[in-house]
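Please fill in the sequence for the structure shown.

STRUCTURE ENCODING:
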């Protein structure tokens, strides 16, 4: 990819490959279609912490879990100022790194990564007139050695506040913090019977994963 001579990114120097799962709509007659996307996919490179190291050549990682069967996040989300040890385990931090932001530009904005499960259609129809924004934060702490891992994840970790915070022991090397945003126009299905789901059939959002 680095040797490519073209890109679809607005930043012409960006030769990376990005992927996010599409949001689908399942009609009651059994047909499925992709929910229209609003705009392109936004990729943020946040530089949290000190002595941040650029991604080395050959580095790979994914975030999320396509095979996840359950989540333990609380509803509503525990305020970050009240997070204790249970909210800062690797599993809990990974679950908090996924967001489904209900967009209502005429009302109060939801914070990023505050809703970790895909809302049902009734909630979306009633509260999200401007669509649904899928969000994912990537780990930004690295073991400083491995370019990849068998699961593409165990060589990296989240800081203790997901986006920012302290890196865990053995993962003290800071790398740029990637944050993905994709907005889906759920309003086109407001008067249609059915339900939303991710492209792997997940209706909860717990299987959301990106690379």
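FILLED IN BY: designer on duty
SEQUENCE:
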């Amino acid at each position: 990819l680095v040797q490519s001579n073209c890109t679809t990114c607005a930043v012409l120097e960006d030769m990376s490959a990005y992927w996010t799962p599409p949001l689908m709509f399942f009609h009651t007659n059994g047909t499925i279609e992709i929910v229209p996307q609003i705009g392109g996919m936004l990729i943020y490179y946040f530089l949290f912490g000190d002595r941040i190291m650029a991604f080395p050549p050959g580095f790979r990682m994914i975030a999320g879990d396509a095979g996840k069967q359950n989540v333990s996040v609380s509803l509503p989300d525990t305020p970050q100022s009240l997070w204790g040890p249970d909210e800062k385990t690797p599993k809990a931090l990974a679950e908090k790194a996924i967001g489904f932001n209900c967009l209502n530009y005429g009302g109060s904005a939801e914070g990023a990564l505050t809703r970790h499960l895909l809302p049902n259609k009734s909630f979306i129809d009633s509260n999200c007139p401007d669509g649904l924004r899928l969000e994912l934060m990537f780990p930004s702490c690295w073991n400083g050695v491995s370019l990849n891992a068998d699961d593409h994840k165990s060589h990296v970790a989240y800081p203790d506040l997901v986006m920012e915070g302290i890196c865990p022991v053995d993962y003290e090397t800071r790398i740029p913090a990637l944050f993905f945003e994709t907005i889906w126009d759920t309003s086109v299905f407001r008067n249609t019977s059915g339900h939303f789901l991710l492209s792997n059939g997940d209706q909860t959002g717990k299987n959301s994963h990106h690379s």
